[in-house]
Specification:
CATH architecture of the domain at 5-74: Orthogonal Bundle
Distance between the termini: 102 Å
Low-confidence stretches: none
Oligomer: single chain
Number of strands: 0
Number of helices: 6
Mean pLDDT: 79
Strand content: under 5%
Structural class: mainly alpha
Shape: elongated
CATH topology of the domain at 5-74: Helix Hairpins
CATH superfamily of the domain at 5-74: DnaJ domain
């Protein structure tokens, strides 16, 4: 029995376009007749199969026709206990209509970038205060400066 295009690329039938493209890219690098260690005839045949599988699965219309031909359906019909669908935990990754994950933990690189942004912000604030202090500028303008003691005494005496 011949392999399905999904088996040739090493992906599941539920794989999205990105997974199919990634698998094709890896396999084409591995089995390209100019770069592989396999005999040339074997490499050409495998490379031809990989290209054929990718050409079919990367085109939505061809993929749907191929799925019908191998009798595969992406639609799963499930029955639930008592007719109630179980709730999905909130902390799991969910996928929106655009195919991009909407919830996931931050990677180490993203955390490091946030740390650098925060450190840069703090360093800029310190630099602004230091330059203002060296120039002799007031830290607060007079409009929001704290009241002097004589002004406080005036207000307390007149309020009684």
């Amino acid at each position: 029995m011949t392999k399905t295009y999904y088996a040739i690329l090493g992906v599941t039938p539920w794989a999205n376009e990105i997974d199919i493209r990634r698998a094709y890219r890896d396999l084409s690098k591995l089995y390209h007749p100019d770069t592989t260690q396999l005999p040339k005839d074997d490499a050409v045949e495998i490379f031809r199969q990989v290209n054929e599988a990718y050409a079919t699965l990367s085109n939505a219309d061809r993929r749907n026709a191929y799925d019908r031909r191998i009798q595969f359906s992406r639609f799963q019909y499930k029955t639930y206990e008592n007719g109630v669908k179980p709730q999905k935990p909130k902390n799991l990754q969910t996928i929106d209509d655009d195919g991009l994950p909407s919830e996931r933990p931050l990677s180490g690189g993203e955390l490091f970038a946030l740390l650098l942004i925060g450190a840069t912000l703090v360093a800029c604030l310190i630099l602004v205060v230091l330059v203002a202090w060296l120039r002799g500028d007031r830290l607060f303008p007079e409009a929001i400066a704290p009241l002097s003691i004589s002004a406080l005494n005036y207000f307390t005496q007149n309020s009684l």
